[in-house]
Amino acid sequence: xxxxxxxxxxSGLYDWLIQRASALVLxxxxxxxxxxxxxxxxxxxxxxxxxxxxxxxxxFTLLTLLSIVTHAWxxxxxxxxxxxxxxxxxxxxxxxxxxxxxxxALVAVTYTLWGVEIIWGF
Length: 122
Hints:
Structural class: mainly alpha
Radius of gyration: 18 Å
Shape: elongated
């Protein structure tokens, strides 16, 4: 049996709620960016820079970045748990799942730190 050590929430319900909340943030951000581009036909670099220079937009973008990472982690954890652990029964499946999760965690942390650097300009 797979334990909940490597999932994000404390249980399947928490993971489900986190995924739904992150999906709402991702939807709101996508709709906003799409509307902004559609209603600003002569969009310039200066306008784009001014938009992302505002504190509320940086926070919204950071929240979206964190939503992407959490949404992806929960989804991939579920898939890896189902397909690597259950399909490759026993020790081999667990090792493969943990290696895949370790690689995905490294990628997620790297992209998150890189995104924070881009958003806040550190």
